[in-house]
Amino acid sequence: MSNPFLEVVSQFTPLSAGSQSALAAVLKRLELEKGHVLVRQNTVCQWVYFIEKGLTRTYYYKDGKDVTDWLSAEGQFAVSISSFMTQQPDRRIVELLEPSVLWAISHTDLENLYQQHHDIERLGRLLASHGLLLVQQRFDELHFATALERYRNLMALNPTLIQRVPLGMIASYLGMTAETLSRMRAQI
Amino acid sequence: MSNPFLEVVSQFTPLSAGSQSALAAVLKRLELEKGHVLVRQNTVCQWVYFIEKGLTRTYYYKDGKDVTDWLSAEGQFAVSISSFMTQQPDRRIVELLEPSVLWAISHTDLENLYQQHHDIERLGRLLASHGLLLVQQRFDELHFATALERYRNLMALNPTLIQRVPLGMIASYLGMTAETLSRMRAQI
DNA sequence: TTCAGATTTTGACAATTATCAAAGGATAGA
DNA sequence: TCTATCCTTTGATAATTGTCAAAATCTGAA
């Protein structure tokens, strides 16, 4: 199994040879430069992207201010979740923070695969469940943690992100201003 | 289709007659009094509950303080999500805020149904996806909204909750203290 | 109906975090 | 190498929200 996407997802559930080749047949490999926009504002997200190499940021504008919603790196997925799931436009923008190698599947292809392969439908369920847990973890962190606790948490769980992503975006990701994060970093 | 659970879930995806009866065969109807604990602290959540009538609260203790994580009413589900999905103990407690009529499915039964019925696996995927959207909505709200915005949002989206749930729990659900919510309510 | 206990409100004050502004550093292209 | 631009830091101040305490109100059981 030479495809990194198949390697990662088969850790969620084993896939039959047929399902693997059906998936491989619709996967598109992309090499894109830093700054490339995967999903434009207020459009329908038609693709889900698996990151072989690189880094993506999902963000939106709230009252004119740039809010970093999500960051994804190697082995993870980048997508405007609500838009992909509902096939409705969404304010979320997905862009590359680094030159990246991605594997893309279209919504249409994925729906067809779900219809035809029970094990791929299962994979979809497990990936959605896993995504739910990730969002819940971030929600918990925001729910009653101080700015310092949130920063410490990120340092513990994902220290490399702090080196790869500009401070202002990390701050926004953590729900605080760049000034607050800068001060926190100074006093640790 | 006289089962309220089947009526609601069939809005996500149509189920074959066989899948419907297989689901009906493992569903257990429960009538429980207010205050009943569905999921105890630090135990594995073995059941997912569909609410025909009533109201549940999911909460946990953070630094000795009671944090209301989620509220579910008629037509929704109550579960300690991460515990149910991972089958690991979790700090979340699920209790009834009102006398309730519930339909329960065990994790084991559900896994078997997923194996045997592609359309139930699909239902699971769609319910997980839908849950993901709900958590994401709450996350967005917490991310860069003020306490007043969050309260207004709840009044707009779910005004009945405010009448059915004690103020202190609503405040915690919204990520603020009871005093702050009380003051907000006074000045509107 | 009455009362004990729980919940909500109000007040005074403190802590946290945001905002605005300006200075200091880093970075990439000419 | 130089410079324009962007990013980060620092300072002063303001706004928001939390904490602690006490009073007011509500609720349910005897």
Specify the oligomeric state: homodimer
Shape of chain A: globular
- Kindly state the percentage of residues in helix of chain A: 40-55%
Distance between the termini of chain A: 45 Å
Structural class given helices, strands, pairing of chain A? alpha+beta
Question: Count the helices of chain A. How many?
Answer: 9
CATH superfamily of the largest domain in chain A: Jelly Rolls
Strand order of the largest sheet of chain A: 1-8-3-6
Mean of residue pLDDT of chain A?
Answer: 95
CATH topology of the largest domain in chain A: Jelly Rolls
Unreliable stretches of chain A: none
CATH architecture of the largest domain in chain A: Sandwich
Task: Give a short account of the largest sheet of chain A.
Answer: 4 strands, antiparallel
The helix/strand series of chain A, from N terminus to C terminus, equals HHEEEEEEHEEHHHHHH
Which chain pair shows the most residues in contact? A-B, 28 and 28 residues
| Count of DSSP strands of chain A | 8
Our estimate of the beta-strand percent of chain A is 15-25%
Number of domains of chain A: 2
